């Protein structure tokens, strides 16, 4: 019997150094990504920094009860959910549309210019963009100049709940659309060109080609992005809302994160903040798992 | 992401308060001292009462030198030196003050760690969590209470009594014992600090606009409104454009307000949001829900609809609101004594014709409007229970006050200890902040100016020497050149008798104020419900001012009570019953 030891094999000679090189990365990940998970115990304690994790009093679900009993919590959850879902769905649909349209443009300088200018706002921070947006939508801003130029009453966009939420969602989609668009474009490029040639021989036009080749070819990426973004169904965009909102639009745009932020400002309430974090993570894991299962069930597609 | 933004906001607030502190305090908290002479740092200074304490006077010397070197540990919230002339290359470890301290008392200060200011709170929380505390620390009131509860800090009764220099006692007790009482429990002094009181609310108005429109300085609420309305409609700046409005305001007009707000209007109607007032039955009442609140809201609502207030105040923070003042778009602003130093001076830069005067809050019924005065503790010095020499902490505080004597801070003095010689006061702690430094400096500088002195002559035991010196130089500069707007900012906020502080002083001297009777730490329900209640107040009041039905206020009152207001009132009264005496 010949002993096949992996360590002695030729394969190991090539692979082993690579595996060894992984070790620091694995250790760092364990320390910084898995270690802090232990901090979850805070969510179940009356956490006092002086007593630390080990000596703080264990209070069970008290922190969760506290959070859920806060007077505005249902409204805040609903705001978060609504804003996040709108951002996710539009944030996928619009870039997809853009990618398909852009793909139809004859390749060249024009496509690159459009692509870059759509991608640009992605790099701006909300701290900067927020100030710009408040100016743009203010009573003396360009938008209202056009409106009053048309003979209509100026609108105080930032102080009207409906307008405010639309602006929040719209501007977030506008800011982020370049990123997903690039991913979709990459997926299109990855489709085998001979399929298009065959379709042309069969007499399919541009429209038919898009429906029957481009879209099915992109399906894995679309499903992947959908699934991943469902994980952020309770992330409605803290920094954006924080720089833009004001008391008048609390009822439509106070989200979990902004509320917890004001909670924390008042006193260092670490434990309730940890409870909210845990709550959000649990919902995220559930949403990702469900969509993973559905993706497999209906299109026999495994992401991982 | 969230963390980052939190830091951003906290950072902004801190920067702002730094700016404010810088403009308000001049040289921050440099005080004079009357403790025993220590002119020759190399030799141990003489005791303060050598004859009164015949037996062991040297042992109780406020700045007595240890025979063996003594180490005391601290942690440092690092800020770069403010003064551009600071000696290059100086670090917290080579700070001139530490060198002198070592020579005078043989104490070595060792920093366990040092982090930039914006990370300090986080790092300090970690240190608390790991139980790795330094020997002496400055903490806020909440932390102080927690430390006390957990028995982490030393009893300072004895060492304060024996080692605190006369200067230090004068500084700490300048509030009539309020701070001492707040840090004493069961007869034990657990920390040392000073207190300060919230500034008086007042108004500032463009006198040149009044003149342009032939109007008198308003005193009653009606006149105030007429003037404000005229500022909207009658083109007060005579530029032919309809581009001005009456009163500046920002979205933090009541809660956490610190300038360009509406607190003064609420006060005029006997409504004191955030304050706790003594009722007729001796119990404390929440200032938020006093009957006058509704009247104040009604007034503000009518002003909003008339265009007297900025249509978009709800979207603007203090910085944004100040831009309209600087740009010359607004004629009245409500605020505190420092407003001339920012942003009014910038408005004068932009528009040389601008002439701002300070006015008392308008009155509704003929009686002067009372401002709300709250007493607040500064950071509290505490000593780790494990540390063997708690008196060394007291000596550090003595030392710093000693170094604020006129001869050390006078630039022309041979003993001058300044930034250009490597002395950075920001890094040294504990620094006890003298409560009345503005008042004392105001009096000293005015006396000198009235007597037409060329040089400010202040006694050796003067506690606000640094501030007085700065105010005097700037006042001289302004009086020589009325176009110097930087000097005007300091002069009109701190020195002028009809300026910011001068008017505040009149208000205080004539007892035109109500006291906030509650100055304990936040009650449990305040901690739990504070964010919700503040949201409720901000949302309801802003909406009412912008046109929601005034009767929303009545349902607000019942929600406020139900959501925790009643519980808080009860807790505050429990505290009051316990601490009244």
Describe the structure.
The complex is a heterodimer of chains A (304) and B (581). Chain A has helices spanning 10-34, 52-55, 62-69, 73-104, 109-119, 126-136, 142-149, 161-189, 193-201, 206-230, 238-244, 250-253, 256-266, 270-299; strands at 45-46, 57-58. Chain A is mostly helical and 304 residues long. A two-stranded antiparallel ribbon of chain A has the order 1-2. The radius of gyration of chain A is 25 Å and the shape is flat. Chain A has two domains: 2-58, no CATH class; 71-255 and 276-299, MetI-like (MetI-like fold, Orthogonal Bundle). By secondary structure, chain B is of the alpha/beta class. Chain B folds into three domains: 50-198 and 377-427, 3-Layer(aba) Sandwich (D-Maltodextrin-Binding Protein, domain 2), CATH 3.40.190.10; 202-371 and 516-579, D-Maltodextrin-Binding Protein, domain 2 (3-Layer(aba) Sandwich), CATH 3.40.190; 435-513, no CATH class. A four-stranded mixed β-sheet of chain B has the order 8-11-7-12. A two-stranded parallel ribbon of chain B has the order 1-2. A two-stranded antiparallel ribbon of chain B has the order 3-15. In chain B, α2 (96-105) links the parallel β1 (70-78) and β2. The longest helix of chain B has 28 residues, at 552-579. Chain B starts with a helix and ends with a helix. The A-B interface holds A 48-53, 66, 70-72, 127, 134, 138-139, 156, 158-159, 238-239, 242, 246-248, 250-251, 254, 257, 259, 261-269 and B 1-2, 4-6, 8-9, 125-126, 128-131, 142, 146-147, 150, 152, 251, 311-312, 314-315, 522, 526-528, 530-532, 534-536, 538-539, 541-543, 546, 559, 563.
Q: Which structural class best describes the helix and strand composition of chain A?
A: mainly alpha
Number of helices of chain B: 21
Tell me the count of domains of chain B.
Answer: 3
- End-to-end Cα distance of chain B, whole Å, is 48 Å
CATH superfamily of the largest domain in chain A: MetI-like
Uncertain segments of chain B are: 1-57
In N-to-C order, the SSE pattern of chain A is HEHEHHHHHHHHHHHH
Corresponding CATH architecture of the largest domain in chain A: Orthogonal Bundle
How many beta-strand runs of chain B? 16
Structural class of chain B: alpha/beta
Extract low-pLDDT stretches of chain A: none
């Amino acid at each position: 019997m010949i002993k096949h030891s992996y360590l002695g094999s030729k394969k190991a000679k090539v692979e082993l150094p690579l595996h060894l090189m992984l070790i620091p990365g694995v250790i760092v990940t364990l320390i910084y990504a898995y270690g802090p998970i232990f901090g979850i115990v805070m969510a179940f304690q009356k956490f006092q920094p002086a007593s630390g994790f080990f000596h703080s009093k264990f209070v069970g679900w008290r922190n969760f009860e506290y959070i859920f009993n806060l007077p505005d919590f249902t409204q805040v959850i609903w705001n978060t959910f609504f804003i996040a879902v709108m951002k996710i769905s539009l944030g996928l649909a619009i870039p997809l549309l853009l990618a398909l349209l852009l793909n139809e443009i004859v390749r060249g300088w024009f496509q690159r210019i459009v692509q870059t200018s759509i991608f640009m706002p992605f790099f701006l921070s909300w701290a900067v963009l927020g100030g710009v947006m408040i100016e743009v939508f203010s009573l003396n801003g360009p938008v209202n100049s056009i409106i009053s130029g048309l003979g209509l009453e100026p609108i105080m966009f930032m102080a009207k709940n409906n307008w405010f939420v639309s602006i929040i969602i719209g501007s977030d989609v506008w800011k982020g659309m370049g990123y997903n668009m690039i991913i979709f474009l990459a997926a299109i490029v990855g489709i085998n060109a001979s399929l298009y040639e065959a379709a042309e021989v069969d007499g399919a036009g541009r429209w038919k080609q898009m429906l029957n080749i481009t879209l099915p070819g992109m399906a894995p990426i679309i499903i992947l992005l959908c699934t991943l973004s469902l994980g952020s169904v309770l992330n409605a965009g803290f920094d954006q809302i924080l720089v833009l909102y004001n008391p008048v639009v609390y009822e439509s745009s106070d989200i979990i994160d902004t509320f917890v932020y004001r909670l924390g400002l008042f006193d260092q309430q670490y434990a309730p903040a940890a409870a909210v974090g845990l709550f959000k993570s649990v919902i995220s894991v559930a949403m990702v798992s469900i969509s993973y299962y559905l993706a497999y069930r209906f299109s026999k597609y495994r992401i991982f | 992401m969230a963390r980052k933004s939190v830091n951003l906001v906290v950072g902004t607030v801190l920067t702002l308060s730094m700016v404010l502190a810088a403009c308000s305090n001049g040289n921050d908290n440099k005080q004079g001292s009357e403790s025993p002479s220590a002119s020759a740092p190399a030799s141990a200074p003489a005791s303060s009462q050598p004859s009164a304490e015949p037996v062991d006077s040297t042992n109780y010397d406020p700045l007595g030198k240890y025979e063996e070197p003594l180490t005391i540990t601290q942690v440092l919230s690092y800020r770069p030196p403010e003064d551009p002339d600071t000696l290059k290359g100086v670090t917290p470890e080579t700070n001139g003050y530490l060198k002198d301290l070592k020579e005078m008392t043989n104490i070595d200060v060792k920093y366990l760690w040092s982090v930039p200011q914006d990370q300090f709170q986080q790092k300090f929380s970690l240190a608390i969590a790991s139980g790795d505390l330094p020997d002496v620390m400055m903490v806020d009131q909440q932390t102080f209470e927690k430390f006390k509860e957990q028995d982490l800090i030393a009893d300072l009764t004895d060492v304060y009594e024996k080692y605190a220099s006369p200067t230090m006692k004068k500084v700490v007790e300048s509030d009539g014992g309020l701070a001492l009482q707040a840090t004493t429990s069961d007869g034990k002094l657990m920390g040392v600090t000073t207190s300060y009181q919230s500034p008086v609310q007042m108004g500032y108005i463009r006198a040149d606009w009044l003149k342009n429109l032939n109007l008198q300085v308003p005193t009653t609420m009606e006149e105030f409104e007429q003037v404000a309305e005229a500022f909207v409609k009658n083109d007060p700046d005579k530029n032919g454009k309809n581009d001005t409005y009456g009163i500046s305001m920002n979205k933090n007009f009541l809660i956490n307000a610190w300038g360009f707000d509406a607190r003064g209007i609420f006060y005029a109607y006997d409504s004191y949001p955030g304050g706790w007032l003594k009722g007729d039955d001796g119990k404390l009442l929440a200032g938020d829900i006093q009957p006058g609140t509704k009247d104040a809201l009604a007034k503000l609502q009518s002003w909003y609809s008339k265009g007297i207030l900025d249509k978009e105040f709800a979207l603007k923070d203090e910085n944004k609101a100040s831009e309209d003042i600087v740009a010359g778009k607004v004629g009245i602003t409500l605020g505190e004594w420092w407003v001339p130093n920012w942003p009014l001076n910038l408005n004068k830069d932009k528009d040389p014709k601008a002439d701002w005067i300070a006015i008392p809050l308008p009155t509704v019924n003929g009686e002067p409007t009372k401002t709300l005065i709250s007493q607040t503790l500064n950071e509290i010095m505490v000593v780790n229970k494990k540390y063997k020499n708690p008196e060394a902490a007291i000596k550090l505080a003595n030392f710093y006050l000693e170094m604020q004597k006129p001869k050390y801070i006078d630039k022309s003095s041979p003993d001058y200890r300044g930034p250009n010689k490597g002395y950075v006061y920001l890094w040294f702690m504990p620094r006890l902040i003298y409560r009345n430094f503005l008042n004392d400096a105001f009096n000293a500088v005015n006396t000198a100016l009235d007597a037409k002195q060329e040089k400010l002559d202040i006694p050796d035991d003067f506690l606000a020497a640094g501030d007085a010196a700065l105010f005097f130089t700037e006042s001289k500069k302004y009086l020589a050149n009325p176009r110097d707007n930087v000097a005007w900012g300091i002069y009109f906020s701190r020195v002028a008798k009809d300026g910011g502080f001068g008017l505040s002083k009149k208000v205080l001297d004539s007892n035109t104020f109500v006291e906030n009777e509650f100055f304990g730490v936040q009650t449990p329900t305040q901690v739990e419900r504070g964010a919700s209640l503040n949201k409720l107040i901000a949302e309801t009041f802003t909406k009412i001012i912008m046109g929601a039905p005034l009767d929303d206020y009545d349902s607000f009152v019942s929600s406020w009570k139900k959501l925790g207001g009643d519980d808080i009132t009860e807790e505050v009264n429990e505290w009051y019953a316990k601490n009244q005496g």
